[in-house]
Amino acid sequence: MGSVSLKIRDGTARFKRASLCSSAVNILMLFSVITTNLFALYAFTASPKDQHNQVHNHNFKNISLISEQVSLILREIDFSQKKLSQIEKEMLGYESIDLFRHNIASELKLFLQRHQLPLGKDSKSGMTEMVASVGHSCEKYADLLSQYMSYKVSGPCPDDWSVAQKLILRGCEPLARRRCFAKSIPKVGLHPFPNSLWKPVGNKTVNWSGLGCKNFECLKGKKLGRDCVACFDLVNGYENKRFVKATSKIDFLVDDVLALGSGGIRIGFDIGGGSGTFAARMADRKVTVITSTLNIDAPFNEFIAGRGLFPLSLSLEHRFPFYDNVFDLVHASNALDVDGKPEKLEFLMFDIDRILRAGGLFWLDNFYCANDEKKQVLTRLIERFGYKKLKWVVGEKIDSTRLGKSEVVLSAVLQKPIRVS
After folding, report:
1. Where in or outside the cell (predicted)?
2. Would you state the pLDDT for residue 138?
3. If DSSP codes are grouped into helix, strand and coil, which group holds residue 409?
4. Which residue has the higher pLDDT, 413 or 20?
5. How many domains are there within the chain?
């Protein structure tokens, strides 16, 4: 799942045009072939001037010369292979992290070192060594990563979750493993499942360090995102009505969507699921849902876990750590909104398609369309996948947090087709 750690010379990824790199590779290979043939021709045609008087020396010198030329050819081939490897790295835009920098933590050096397999080459994978998994973008933030990896071995981990999250949000994902003990929080006042789904989570179950709020009462009235307005209030807020009571035609009810799955919905994945209410509604209906989230401005992971649900601390830039075709349902709302070029959204959509089984449902829930162009880009992208539109509604919805301003939103339930290779 992890990506390879590689070095950027000047701190930024440099991507060269594939055409130029291809030309360079072709020229280098042509040069190697011509040089090799010239050396071989010279080796097998060269002979001493006096062939009559020095027959023995002639044979000995020829053998020696051939051996020398063969060694030279092998060195040339080895040099060419290394050059091709270097060109490939430059095409990718990064190399290996420089572990000899003066400010690199010793623990980071130890973690990133390659370790030989104890029994030599593995017969199944062909590997001879284990390579540590760490995001290649970590190289750009080596100082921050080194700070994260500075701790006392077998001691308590520093109270630095904010450092870890900064790295993750900058593409340094997965993070390096550490050899320290995370702070233990006594889970006092947890409710048994399934009562825990709709009971308030206790303040003492959370490490509030680094957060502006120090209790859930502080968070109840806050808007922490377009899909999280007072989402920590499970008693008096809107959370206890979500997915079971519609406020407009854009809101789909969970039972209606499950009916479209013809009883085949067992496990699901909620992308950017806020405080876990979608997973709670599904749990009420015997459906297991994993919720991806990050602790941005609030303890989302601890709150979801306190409800007896499965949180997954993961950014949208990370490839989903699931095998192909495993989920019956994928639910996403405005967490699907990624800034930048349309290609970024394509990468995300293809990964969603990868983990969703054929016949499974993709529920796009109240997706905010900032403008008509954005809606068209998303619509064209969805149509490329050939999904069947079971429900598709575009309309306006009043955003009470923006002085009653109306917004154009899209809600859809799409069914993944069975594709023939």
Report:
1. Endomembrane system; Membrane
2. 84
3. strand
4. 413
5. 3
User: Structural domain of residue 23, as residue ranges?
Assistant: 18-92
- Classify residue 420: in a domain, yes or no: no
Q: What is the C-alpha R_g of the chain?
A: 29
Tokens of 40: 């071989």
Same-domain check for residues 54 and 85: yes
3-state helix, strand, coil in the chain (%, to 5): 40, 15, 45
Per DSSP bridges, beta strands 388-399 and 405-415 are antiparallel
Q: Please give the average per-residue pLDDT across 327-342, as a whole number.
A: 82
Contact 309, 282 (CB under 8 A): no
Buried b vs exposed e over 208-233: b needs ≥16 C-beta within 10 Å?
beebebeebeebbebebbbbbbbbbb
Do 295 and 222 lie in a common domain? yes
Q: What pTM was estimated for this model as a whole?
A: 0.71
- How far apart are the C-alpha atoms of 66 and 40, rounded to whole Å? 8
Residue 63 CB-density burial (10 A; 0-12 exposed, 13-18 middle, 19+ buried): exposed
222 band by pLDDT with thresholds 50, 70 and 90: confident
Q: Which residues, 6+ apart, have CB-to-CB distance to 27 below 8 Å?
A: none
Gap between the Cα atoms of 413 and 333, Å rounded:
12
Residue at which a domain ends, from 149, 184, 219: 184
The identity of residue 210, as a single letter, is G
Give the whole-angstrom CA distance, residue 306 versus residue 200.
9
Whether 309 is in a domain gets the answer yes
Asked whether residue 203 falls in the same domain as residue 175, the answer is no
Q: Which of 92, 117, 145 is the last residue of a domain?
A: 92
Kindly provide the residue ranges of all beta strands, DSSP E only, lying in 315-355, ordered along the sequence. Answer: 327-332
For the beta carbon of residue 261, count every other beta carbon within 10 angstroms.
20
In a domain, 333, yes or no: yes
CA dist 36 → 43, 62, 69, 180, 285 (Å): 11, 18, 9, 55, 70
User: Does residue 215 lie within any of the structural domains?
Assistant: yes
Q: Which residues contact 363 (CB under 8 A, 6 or more apart)?
A: 252, 257, 329, 330, 331, 332, 412, 413, 414
Contacts with 285 (C-beta within 8 Å, 6 or more apart), sequence order = 254, 255, 258
| Residue 7 token pair | 């070095």
Asked if 300 and 166 sit in the same domain, the reply is: no
Report pLDDT digits (tens) over 248-291: 889 999 999 999 987 789 999 999 999 999 999 999 999 999 99
